[in-house]
Design goal:
four-stranded parallel beta sheet
Amino acid sequence: MAQGAPMPPKQSQPLSPPIVIAHRGASGLRPEHTIASYTLAIEQGADFIEPDLVLTKDNVFVARHENDITGTTNVATHPEFAARRTTKLIDGESHTGWFTEDFTLAELKTLRAIERLPKLRPDNAKYDGQFEVPTLAEVIALAKRHSVGGRVVGIYPETKHPSYFAGIGHPMEALLVAQLKAAGWDKPSDPVFIQSFEVDNLKRLHGMTGLRLIQLMDARGGPADHATPSYAAMITPAGLKAVAAYAYGIGPGLAMIEDSDAVPTTLVADAHAVGLRLHPWTFRAENAFLPKSLQVGTDPATHGHVDTAMRRYLALGVDGFFTDFPGIGVEVRNALKEKR
């Protein structure tokens, strides 16, 4: 190490055996948030499948990355819904398109999923138009159907824009807790994590369920509910201690632990010091999402060495991770388990 170079942080041991979370399913290989994507993730050995949850006009949870479904469904090709295209202010940002809260579940079921990143994932785009928008109930049923022979497949739902939905008369918390409880899940030992980028949403859930909660955070900005000034404030020792009062763990963006090829931060050890697990997001195989040292060639869509990236973070002691390529994640995690 060059003289004067910063010392890397001391490695921390995971507080729990690392888990592999299929980010929107096996979304690197199938259009995200489809039963096909979740099923493939389960077949590849993922421990948890992740549905982002938004609500329909008739208050049904469906799995979409955003309530704006313009880029993830073929809604734009449906002339009967043309008049529903509108502009909304969501978490302080203007969005123009079609939104789940303006459709009943029956109407959404007439749409079909399309690939959100067709230039980076052209093979996924071949599946455009084949798959429905799934409900949370369908995701739960899928996980339970594959929880056999001693294997348990968990779900890792994210409440998307809970303050926005509450503001338009669709509060999420009680509805979500009731649906999960009806599925038999309400204890910390149950195979469920609930995650959110907002704070008050999680605090309300903390008072309503025993399920494990994960505070999401990013390298920039802060929660949309303005419950704290910034995510940066949340990773100070005092901030992490405050999070530990209502959450089981944190879901930091990868850059909060290691920004590209820079020296890693102390976040893993700092979070572990107050009993918080870490499930960082998101490992993607394409060069566009990898640090320079792990890229292969110059095409943004070419797959680089995402397995090496995963190993780096596991070596730092994370307790699990989100990935669009759960098959690679399971292979890397299992190889590390065998070494230990």
